[in-house]
Amino acid sequence: MSFASSCLRYAHTDGYTGLLYTPKDGEFIITCGTDGDIRHWTCISDDDPRSTCLGEFVMCIAHTGTRLLASTDRNTVHAYTFPAMDSDGILMRFTAPATCLKFNGGYTAAGSEDTNIKVLRGESAGNEITLEGHKGPVLALDLFPERKLLASVAGDGLLKVWNFDTAKELKSIEGLPRINSFESASLFGTPCFEPQRGGELAYALDKQIVVLNTSNWEEAYRLIDDQVSSNYSCCAFSPNGERLAAGTTGGEISIFDMKKRKALAVEGPPSDCNAITNLAWHTANENELGFCDATGQLGTMVLSDEVGGSGEGAIEEAQDELLDGDDYIYEAEEATAGDADANGEGDDGVSLEKLKRQVLNLDEENSRQSLASSVTSAPAAPAAVQLKLFKQQAAFQPSATPMGLEHRYLVWNDVGIVISHEDPTSGDGSIDVEFHDASIHHALHISNYNQHNLGSLSRSALVLASTETTKLVVIALAAAGNKEWSLNLPDCECVEAVVATSRLIAVATSSYFLRIFSVLGTQREILTIPGPVVSLSGHENSLMLVYHSSSPSQTQQYLSAMLVNINGLSLRVEHLPVPLTPGRQLSWLGYSDVGSPALADNMGIIQLYRKSSNAWFPICDTMKQSSSVSNNYFVVALSEHRQIIQAVLCRGSSYPMTNPRPMLQELYMQMPLCNFEMEKSELEDSLLRSSLMQVEGGEKKQKETAISLFALACSSEVEPRARELIESIGCPDLLQLAVKYATKRGRIHLSDRLCELLPQLEAFQEARKQQNLLGASGISATIVLPMTPNSGSQNGPKLAPKAMELNSAKRGSLKRFSNSPNLFKSAATRPLTPEPAAVVDTQENIFGESEAELMPSGKCMESSEQRTPLNSVNPFAMKRKLVDTGVIFGSEKLKLAKK
User: Where would you find the membrane-spanning parts of this chain (predicted)?
Assistant: First the structure.
């Protein structure tokens, strides 16, 4: 005997799907899904189920016997009469959608994405008990009213057991998967009490079902099915408590015998079955089980009389049926009695009946053993191993809410907001356009006759299109006369993504074409896209298109970006990989206010691309600035000058509601550095951001932050780190400030060590300027560092004598000599090095300043034979050379000479 699976039926759209059997008789199968419909099925073969729309989505349902309870997009638990489905009041209210619902023994329990659980006695609203303690969205719950027990699993990775009568937490178990939103959850845990006595509590964990003893809350045992290759996502007890069913993320289903604690024979899942989201047993037939998957499909499993499966449980059941144990006992007793009678005839006689029985029993035993061995030796058909790949992300518009909603944002950016309204009954709709700055254009109200579901807005144009048609409509905002123009794409091309910048209009099509137009309709370029489109964004004359570069693996998808820069009739395209953490998806794509490409994933990490470095930098983790793990930020815009991210806080969801209009928040950029609660990490974050981005007063801020880090290292008695910081930044001006600070604080040794870095830093700065000058030609500058005399490594003739060792008396006289005012007068008459060519300040030249601030111009370079500090015979030549640069070194104080 085994459980056979039926064919899958389409029930709802992709997403979490729930189901239940009506109590007592199980007459109907009721399902709910993300399309907002409730469907009543008489059986799995019902070709015309009754459908009722309750809202934009229905998260979960429960049945009281006379009424149907449902959680909708209104953040309430609503009651409906059954089967008429008329509204019958509101039972509970939350600040986010209710994600799980359970009715048992006159009690109704509901968990929400706002982390709260409410328990209500009876079927009327009021006097509910609130259970608080979770720090993530509640994924699943169950209650046993006889003992006032409630078990819940949430996105914080905890399973909690409560006494819902006293609102007291009895037990908390860690180790479950963590998730920040119900929408992205695939492992629900699904705790369930044994329905008869409540002595056991089972929940899904990885590839096992953990069973707890409710008397002491210790682990009793674990159920394992060797035929399962994926993690369990949910589980459910049968009404009599004798069986337990569990579904996996791979679409597999296990059914366990709770008495034998073994897996029963179950037919393999259909090839089109995906992650199981819900299980429900038939309330009147213990041999029927219903299930739903993440793609909105419905199926059932029924116990059949055929021997199937390849597990040990199926083999043992077949052996028990073939070799009936009771018959063996009866025959054995009869044979024993007969033998005793036969033996009683006498030792000398031979019993003919005894010989017959022995021979017949031996033949029967051999035949039965051969039959049983044929069952065990029959090779089972090997199950086909199906590799579950990561779901490939479909195309989406940045800063837009998903399609299929009655009221949704087509785009929300730093220019304005475009909202689409649709009437589900008549199919008519409209589009409202609002501008943040009324001087750009007045608000627009457009009838949506063409069923536009894609849109993009800039200061110059509004673009509207539909994924189901080939028509593109553009409204030029700054044009005079006829502002609107439209066109139809050729060869039945469909629009996948659109973008409007201040100078360009771009359309990505289903034929893997990127069509570029001017704002007023001139066709500029047409490019080929290397893969399926994911998203499209733009800024002035630059476009960024993200596409799938290859098929996804089991844990992640592989995306690449195509950067298109247009200058007149010339065009340049660059391809670069898009870094995404495994298990994450792209949620936003755009540009900063200065034109730097940026992106965000669904876990809140925002990254910025620097063309000079050819790398992506994580600049903010929005989840670190959220008070709850169930909250998300809907990114709208990014500003490098102000160092902020404009976003909308979505409590318990991933997208904002259109009514009431949410408030726009400003998040400060904060790179995900280690130990950010320390002052050192905060200064390092400020230094990194000011060097990576185009910040107002960035150079000044860099120096201030660097000298603060230097001072912090000095106060922490870590002088090597202070010297390393100045050396790594490589700015002579910063070196002078550091020497002044170290001298003022009495750190003479550090001051002397820093002075030794001056020639090296000047060489680095000169090479940086040369690199900027030669960068356009692609020639890299070579950094030539001044050589330090080393007697052990010099093989040629020495041009200068060895440096003299000065005692304390000579050092004092040298100090008085260096502080003499006549020294500056003689230094002014010496020939100076020529001023290098001026360079243009760029973002990459962080501390690069013209040396005109330090050295005057107008002198010609001396001949190559002239003595330098390296080949001079005067041991004090190096001292004079440093005086020429305006720095005088002393053991107690430092003076800056201004020329």
Answer: none
Same domain, 874 and 822: yes
**Which H/E stretch holds residue 30?**
strand 29-32
Q: Is 698 helix (H, G, I), strand (E, B) or coil?
A: helix
Per-residue CA distances from 864 to 797, 813, 834, 867 (Å): 18, 33, 14, 8
In a 10 Å sphere around its CB, with 0-12 CB exposed, 13-18 middle and 19+ buried, how is residue 638 labelled?
buried
Q: Identify which of 143, 25, 141, 10 has the alpha carbon closest to the alpha carbon of residue 83.
A: 25
pLDDT for the residue numbered 481: 62
Query: Is 90 inside any structural domain?
Result: yes
Residues 248 and 158 in one domain: no
The per-residue pLDDT for 370 is: 52
What does the pLDDT look like over 831-890, one tens digit per residue?
A: 444 444 444 444 444 444 433 333 433 433 443 444 444 444 444 444 444 444 444 444
Supply the DSSP string of 61-111, one letter for each residue: EEE-SSEEEEEETTSEEEEEETTT--EEEEEEE-SS-EEEEEEETTEEEEE
pLDDT for 363 equals 54
* pLDDT score, position 726: 87
Closest CA to 85 of 123, 52, 48, 36: 52
Give the amino acid at 251. Answer: G
Amino acid 99: pLDDT: 94
State residue 565's pLDDT score: 95
| Stretch (H or E) spanning 288 | strand 288-293
Rounded to 10 degrees, the C-alpha dihedral 824/830/831/834 comes to -10
pLDDT (0 to 100) of residue 748:
85
Give the domain CATH number at 457. Answer: 2.130.10.10
Cα dihedral across residues 847, 853, 859, 862: positive or negative: negative
The pair of three-digit structure tokens given for residue 266, joined into one six-digit string? 């179950």
Hey, what amino acid is at 219? E
Among the listed residues 453, 444, 395, the one whose alpha carbon sits nearest the alpha carbon of residue 416: 444
Domain check: are 123 and 167 in the same one?
A: yes
Q: Which DSSP helix (H) or strand (E) runs through 313?
A: helix 312-322
Give whole-number Cα distances, 527 to 248, 576, 794, in Å.
43, 17, 61
Q: Which residue ranges in the chain fall short of pLDDT 70?
A: 1, 305-387, 479-481, 772, 774-899
Q: Report angle CA 525, 528, 532 to the nearest 5 degrees.
A: 130
Domain limit, last residue, from 571, 598, 629: 629
Q: What 8-state DSSP symbol labels residue 745?
A: T
Same domain assignment for residues 253 and 116: no
- Facing residues of 203 across strands? 210
Same domain for 146 and 261: no
The amino acid that residue 350 corresponds to is V
Residue in this structure with the two tokens 């470095």, named with its chain if needed: 613
Are 90 and 103 part of one and the same domain?
yes
Residue 673's nearest CA partner among 663, 681, 683 is 681
Are residues 736 and 813 located together in one domain of the fold?
A: yes
| Sign, CA torsion 885/890/892/898 | negative
- pLDDT value, residue 810: 45
Cis (ω within 30 of 0) for the bond into 145?
Answer: no
Q: How many domains does the chain fold into? A: 4
Helices marked H in 549-623 = none
Domain that holds residue 242: 1-14+187-320
**Are residues 864 and 738 part of one domain?**
yes
Residue 856: is the preceding peptide bond cis (ω within 30°)?
Answer: no
Could you report how far apart the first and last alpha carbons of the chain are, in Å? 100
> Is residue 349 in a domain?
no
| Exposure b/e, 199-224, CB count within 10 A at least 16 = b | bbbbbbbebbbbbbebeeeeebeebe
E strands, 380-502, are 407-412, 416-422, 429-435, 444-447, 454-457, 461-465, 471-476, 484-488, 495-500
